[in-house]
Amino acid sequence: MSELLTVDRDRCMGSGQCTFYAPSTFDLDDLSIAIVTDDTGDPDDKIQQAIDVCPTRAIARALAGGAA
């Protein structure tokens, strides 16, 4: 089953850490809020590192179909 990445836009402070660790998965929009550009853009370990270093814990993984 595939996983989807989400960014809580209310929590994101736009530090850009996710774009540093997983640049093919995350980007910052015009408001400097993180967005997911490709759920599988980077190797899983890089995506997990981006999740782990997020200072506001705004990034989450969920199984496609809604289960966490």
Write structural notes for this entry.
The protein is of the alpha+beta class and 68 residues long. The protein has a single domain (3-63), classed as Alpha-Beta Plaits (2-Layer Sandwich), CATH 3.30.70. It has two helices and four strands, in the order βαββαβ. The chain has helices spanning 17-21, 44-53; strands at 3-7, 26-28, 34-36, 59-63. A two-stranded antiparallel ribbon has the order 1-4. Strands 2-3 form a two-stranded antiparallel sheet. β2 (26-28) and β3 form a beta hairpin. The longest helix is centred in the C-terminal third of the chain and has 10 residues, at 44-53. It starts with a strand and ends in a 5-residue tail after the last strand. The model has no long low-confidence stretch (mean pLDDT 92).
Query: What is the assembly state of the chains in this entry?
Result: single chain
Using DSSP, what is the number of strands?
4
CATH class (first level) name:
Alpha Beta
The helix count comes to 2
Described by strand count, sense and barrel closure, the largest sheet is: 2 strands, antiparallel
Low-confidence stretches: none
- The helicity comes to 10-25%
CATH fold-level label: Alpha-Beta Plaits
Helix/strand order, N-terminal first: EHEEHE
Average pLDDT across residues? 92
Structural class, by secondary structure, is alpha+beta
Number of spatially distinct domains: 1
| Overall radius of gyration | 11 Å
What would CATH call the architecture? 2-Layer Sandwich
- Spatial arrangement of strands, main beta sheet: 1-4
Terminal CA distance reads 12 Å
Shape field: globular
Proportion of beta-strand residues? 15-25%
